[in-house]
Automatic annotation (TrEMBL):
The keyword Hydrolase applies. The record marks 174-175 as: Cleavage. It comes from Fulvivirga imtechensis AK7. This is Isoaspartyl peptidase. GO terms for biological process: proteolysis. The active site is at residue 175.
Length: 311
């Protein structure tokens, strides 16, 4: 075991402009991001494993109504909340994913339980709920997910077939995620989302799809994506970054920039990624105006936070 570790988190990307952000809201976002970093940091600095670190960090983000995941999830076309999440272990390539879950307080915990059960990788809908019940996972009433902001977003499009992004006026892609390298040299990634406002037909995005929204491999990197899910699915973004590192010899930063700033732009996709590699380098790349993000490492033990597109 060495002393090297790193944790990066995101709370969504999109048109996030300082001109449209109140000081109070900006402070609230920074407090939430810092709390999530602190939760994962405690695990890593004490020699804990990367899976626990990313799970703990994402739980904090899911428990905040500021982000479109867990408590802050948006409304579907029928006025409910359908969430998805995934996790992956870089050491074993074991993965767990859930989609179409409605009453689960923390979908990321459910994805971890799927990961820990080697019989499955991906569960959805009623089957995922049954698995959650059998494993004793906390379920909540529908009211837990209600917020006036999300309700008003839904009201603006509910009588149409249109789907809306997290903030339809600001084009915000609401997803949360975390990636980590622990002191044992193991990588992990986790992603969670409430999807698109007014979504229909059991729509699933990239967040729960291993290789598209989440990927981890000790030989390359751990990636969590946030963006317009359909484009990230088509681009198999998380795995594509790993592939460019493995087969083309690119660094994490080079691969992330190639995929997000070139390939996704050409495809029409907007969003970003957070990533860490096996050497402890981190990369936070986005082609949108901003991305809620943070990183902490053994290099300086400082929490580095960002919201806008200042790099």
């Amino acid at each position: 075991m060495d002393n090297n570790f790193v944790l990066a988190i995101h709370g969504g990307a999109g048109t996030i402009l300082k001109s449209k952000m109140t000081a109070e809201k900006e402070t609230a976002y920074n407090v939430a991001l810092k709390s999530a970093l602190a939760a994962g940091y405690e695990v890593l600095k004490n020699g804990g494993n990367s899976l626990d670190a990313v799970e703990r960090a994402v739980i904090v983000l899911e428990d905040s109504d500021l982000f479109n995941a867990g408590k802050g999830s948006v409304f579907t076309s029928d006025g409910s909340h359908e969430m998805e999440a995934s996790m992956m272990c870089g050491a074993t390539l074991n993965a767990g994913a859930v989609a179409g879950v409605r009453c689960i307080k923390n979908p990321v915990i459910l994805s971890r339980r799927v990961l820990d059960n080697e019989d499955y990788v991906y569960l959805s809908g009623e089957g995922a709920h049954l698995f959650a019940k059998e494993t004793g996972l906390e379920c909540v009433e529908e009211e837990y997910f209600y917020s006036d902001l999300r309700y008003q977003q839904w009201q603006s499009v509910r009588n149409s077939t249109k789907v809306a992004l997290d903030h339809s006026d600001d084009r915000k892609f609401g997803t949360v995620g975390a990636v980590a390298l622990d002191q044992h040299g193991n990588l992990a990634a986790a992603t969670s989302t409430g999807g698109l406002t007014n979504k229909r037909y059991g729509r699933i995005g990239d967040s729960s799809v291993i290789g598209a929204g989440t990927y981890a491999n000790n030989h390359t990197c751990a990636i969590s994506c946030t963006g317009y899910g359909e484009y990230f699915l088509r681009g198999v973004v998380a795995y594509d970054i790993s592939c460019l590192m493995e087969y083309a010899g690119m660094t994490l930063q080079e691969a992330a920039e190639k995929v997000i700033l070139e390939k996704q732009v050409e495809l029409g996709g907007e969003g970003g990624i957070i990533g860490v590699d096996a050497q402890g380098n981190s990369s936070l790349v986005f082609n949108s105006e901003g991305m809620y993000r943070g990183v902490v490492s053994a290099v300086d033990h400082q929490f580095h936070l960002g919201i806008y597109g200042e790099g």
